[in-house]
Amino acid sequence: MADQSIPEARTPRTPRKGKTPLNGETALDGETALDDGVCEGSAKGALKEGVSRRRLLGTAGATGLVLGAAGGAVGYASRPAEATPLTSLGADQVMFHGKHQPGILQGLQARGHVIAFDLAAGAGRKEAAALLRRWSQTARRLMAGEGAQQDDTDVARDAGPSSLTITFGFGYGFFARTGLEKQRPVALDPLPDFSSDQLDKARSNGDLWVQIGANDALVAFHALRAIQKDAGQAAKVRWQMNGFNRSPGATAHPMTARNLMGQMDGTRNPKPTEADFDERIFVPESGSKDPAWMANGSYAVVRRIRMLLDDWEQLSVTEQEDVIGRRKSDGAPLSGGTETTEMDLEKTDRAGNLVVPINAHARITRPDQNGGAAMLRRPFSYHDGIDADGVPDAGLLFICWQADPLRGFVTVQRKLDRGDALSKYVRHEASGLFAVPGGAAEGEYVGQRLLEG
């Protein structure tokens, strides 16, 4: 599972200006199922010039509710000098238009929703184009901290953009429904079966996929509701899932987050500074076997991975560390050093046993153990309650990005299938593969080059 680095706190009274840059290394894990990856914090941005409806109310909203001195009345704080309007958390903005869609290169967000739709009976290419146009317009407005163009619910009225990202993708069935089978990428062929799969088909795949992330729960929910309403009669919800990550600023200093198994998660991940990063993560503009409309896009594998926490928590810390191959306290490899020290796969103890077990998850998922296969992981944890037997339904909404899912996810998952120590503590319950086109240029909507090409 991936991990998230938390940005240093900024003085809230001096929000930064300008478009959102990446904060150092992109944070995410480079392997699969529950792997290592580095998360280098949320995308940082700032307020544009001008005041939107939502930003105008941000000063009071960010301050929070306080109890009044008389009678316990509730109201907004009335001392502007001490207010923290649109703190660094709320003011951060990610740009909708760009080379790549938002929600891929940004750091992990505190709240997330993923939702899949099927086109309605009778809906085809024309209806799909109109829907993507509506969705793109809504995404642009909401990511800028504005309300929806029509019938806004006001759920996020007093919040800033809060690093909101909205990402769109196409599933395998979309192309037949729209008469675009010849434009369907070969890379979108269905994923093979894996031994750990216990997939619920009703919660897998879909014609259209939307990923929503934000650092505020209400901002994320507001976007989810707007996207659902925009679907109108053109598409119906197939499935929807909710997730979360560590909130920015939750730790005293930037550090790798922990997953629901208590492990530091996200120590290894492809980084934009690496020479072959784009080659492994994004479809090139030319010289690719993919159709031209996928230029600068990527393929998202989405898996709902349930963690068998009751079984996991019966293990001693030493046993858990052997399963993962890293120390639980600080994420360092069992072969020694710090979290970022290169793992020594050949090191043995006095008895001649490998210090990092042969079936340790971190050993198996390493790119150098899989022909260089790597993915940009950007997952969310989830908890969907406790069943009648008292067992938590919790785990990972695994989302990874790669230029070629066969070379990325499939290669690594096949190897995990052959002997990963972690496999007995997780169960893959839902799955999807989606083609995510490149970002929309100014004046375009996402998928326009496919739907109007």
Structure description:
By secondary structure, this protein is of the alpha+beta class. The protein contains 12 helices and 13 strands. It has helices at 53-56, 58-63, 88-91, 125-143, 172-177, 217-231, 277-281, 309-312, 317-324, 361-364, 406-417, 448-451, and strands at 28-29, 37-38, 65-67, 74-76, 111-119, 165-170, 208-214, 235-244, 298-307, 376-377, 380-386, 392-402, 426-436. The strands form 4 sheets. Strands 9, 10, 11, 12 and 13 form a 5-stranded antiparallel β-sheet that branches. Strand 3 and strand 4 (74-76) form a beta hairpin. Helix 4 packs antiparallel against helix 6. It is globular, with a radius of gyration of 22 Å.
